[in-house]
Amino acid sequence: MKLLPHILSSVQVLEVSLTADSHSVAAWRCTAGGEITPAQYDPASAAKSLIAVTVSGHGTVSKPADSDVAARVRRDSDTFLWSEHDGGIGFVRRERLQEVLNTLAAAGIHPQRIVIGIAPTTLARTLFDSLRWRDMLRPTAEGSALAQCAVRRTGLPVLGLFICLLTANVLLAPEVGTRRQALHARLDVRERTSSAAANVTARQQTLLARFDARPDVSRALLCDRIAAAVPDGVVLTQLAVEPLVRRFEADKPLQRHERTAVVAGTAPMAGDISVFVERLAAEACCRTVRLTNVERERDAARLVFRIEIGL
After folding, report:
1. pLDDT digits (tens, 9 = 90+) for 124-151
2. What is the mean pLDDT of the segment spanning 226-235?
3. Looking at residue 262, what is its pLDDT?
4. How are beta strands 23-31 and 36-39 bridged, if at all?
5. CB neighbours of 90 closer than 8 A, spacing ≥ 6?
6. CA distance 37 to 50
7. Residues 160-184, mean pLDDT to the nearest whole number
8. From CA 116, how far away is CA 294, in angstroms rounded?
């Protein structure tokens, strides 16, 4: 079932019977389901209804649709008003309907369709079948009348729907507001957690990038050269390549002695340390060699030293 005829529900068909010098009007109420009942013709009520008009009586003519007369009538739309049905054509001169149209217009009645010699039930069924939503957008009196009729039919249900929605809003607003605040709080927590995780990830990637960078001197080669330069009497206690500046702490940036190797150990005599420093300085992989500390162990004859090597 089409929605628009279902909304409009019924159409009032005005059956106009022309006489030699006047006319009479009978009203019928036709539903979208095909039921028809007589109605009292009231211009004020008709002006608020969906209206169709069928004309019969003095001055109306019926001819076969394929006749020469029918062809002449179709070509002269300024003179005749016609309608076709069941292989025939009914027509009347427009001047004969002028009084009827003036009377309807004065009462604010704008018919959606005017036909000649068609039964009210057939007219109503044809009108319902031809109704379209775009008909309400026509910039004519008929389009405006159709739109107003649709609004009258839907006004009360739509108003009831809005009242129900407002009532539901009043009842549910506190609960919805509380839930909204809770969701906002959860969202804030998630955003802070996500931001912290992103920062940690960025720091980790930066740290890994620094360790992934290919050194100018192979660490294995460097350690091999340092080990080869150790004199016989010297004992190494520490060999660190780019050691940490301070102890690593969570959530703090990692700091290290870049491009620096630290060698520490013990030697029986100062001459052994000097030989070790000279051998390291002779290596191409050691850019600088600096003896940063020499001291004698307490209650011992050995010397403790510390050497920093620039790479």
Report:
1. 888 888 888 887 778 888 788 888 877 7
2. 91
3. 93
4. antiparallel
5. 60, 61, 62, 82, 83, 84, 115, 116, 117, 118
6. 15
7. 78
8. 126
**Amino acid making up residue 131:** L
Could you identify the residue written with the tokens 């009043």? 170
β-pair partners for 90: 62, 83
Helix (H, G, I), strand (E, B) or coil at 208: helix
Strand pairing class (10-18; 51-57): parallel
Structure tokens of 13?
């068909």
Apex 259 CA angle, 257 and 263, nearest 5 = 70
Predicted TM-score (pTM) of the model is: 0.49
> What are 121's two structure tokens?
């039930």
Closest CA to 110 of 138, 78, 151, 132: 138
- Give yes or no for a contact between 4 and 132, defined as CB atoms under 8 angstroms apart: yes
Confidence of residue 293 (pLDDT cuts 50, 70, 90): very high
Nearest to 30 by CA among 148, 106, 113: 113
Q: Does residue 67 or residue 174 have the better pLDDT? A: 67
Q: Give the model's pLDDT for residue 212.
A: 63
| 189 Rama class: left (phi>0) / alpha (psi -120 to 50) / beta | alpha
Q: CA–CA separation, 254 vs 22, rounded Å?
A: 107
Between CA 276 and CA 209, with CA 311 as vertex, the angle to 5 degrees is 140
DSSP state of 137: G
